[in-house]
Amino acid sequence: MSFTIFADTRMALARDSLAGLSAGDALGSQYFVPGNTPADLAAGRLPAPPWSWTDDTEMACSVVRALDTAGEIDRDALALAFAERAEPYRGYGPGAVTVLRLIRTGTPWPVAAAAAFEGQGSCGNGAAMRVAPLGAYFADSTSRAAAQARASAEVTHAHPEGIAGAVAVAVAAALAARGRLDGQRPDAARLLAGVAGALDPGGEVHRGVRRAADLRDRSLAEAVDALGNGSRVTAQDTVPFTLWVAARHLADYPAAIRACVEAGGDVDTTAAIVGGVVAAYTGVGVPGGVPADWLAAREPLPAWLD
Ligand SMILES: [Mg+2]
């Protein structure tokens, strides 16, 4: 069935996803602060506010702003927006700092992105961590979500796995948002099969997503053991795990974020990815959705977003 989504609905879906992404990022990064433990969160004790967001949210805000402005990704404009808005204290990795500095000082993005990691291009999480709202925006077409995710990824990530990570997350968010519009939750097997179908079958992210599907009824510890938890900060070691969590907890945002915190690893990024996908399905301030008190504790989003 094909249907029309009006611009306002697209933006509402993208903004709900961004709310989930940013709250996940901000809360997740609190577990790098000494004294905050996953056991506290499991017992319902939240860290003291405010929770500052990190690079994941800053870049995702640029993606959302680009869609609001143009309805699609203009790669040149997005590359410049990432470079000009990057605040150095937001936790960007060294590879991202270099690429963004090159772009800011006039190097064309294809050259800057290809130069990263001694000419291999980045297979880090940067493209995946910022893309869930884009997937929600294209809830009516997973192929459009995949193509636009690729465009948003390649301005900083030239490695095929870095791009595949973004495509996987965007397609997951598109399917989640589509399920919300249809009033029908996609089950874990269908969600993960839909994601795998959008990826190059020769790639490691694809293999990981298929493995995540096989593990969908196993424990969190088993999933971490088989898939990773983002501690290697590559798309291969982060995206399959995050989609396992999102597929498992698609109707329960707080449970999904608690799973990321319990799993450890690159928690701000895993919680940002998972939060962006799950909130595309649940929405905000409703049972199972992004809790209003979590959003109140999160640092406000940048003023330039509005
Ligand atoms: Mg971060």
CATH superfamily: ADP-ribosylation/Crystallin J1
Please state the average pLDDT score.
95
SS-based class: mainly alpha
User: Helicity level, as a percent range?
Assistant: 55-70%
Spell out which ligands are present: magnesium ion
Count, helices: 17
Structural domains: how many = 1
Give start-end ranges of low-pLDDT stretches. Answer: none
Describe the structure in your own words.
The chain has 17 helices and no strands. By secondary structure, the chain is mainly α. The protein has a single domain, classed as Orthogonal Bundle (ADP-ribosylglycohydrolase fold).
Chain-wise SSE layout:
Elements: H1 7-29, H2 38-42, H3 55-70, H4 75-85, H5 94-104, H6 109-119, H7 126-129, H8 132-137, H9 142-154, H10 160-182, H11 188-197, H12 204-214, H13 220-227, H14 235-248, H15 253-263, H16 267-282, H17 292-297
Helix pairs in contact: 1-3, 1-16, 3-4, 4-5, 5-6, 9-10, 10-11, 10-12, 10-14, 10-16, 11-12, 11-14, 12-14, 13-14, 14-16, 15-16
The structure holds magnesium ion.
Magnesium ion binds at residues 54-56, 91, 268-269.
Protein name: ADP-ribosylglycohydrolase
Pfam families: ADP_ribosyl_GH (PF03747)
Keywords: Hydrolase, Magnesium, Metal-binding
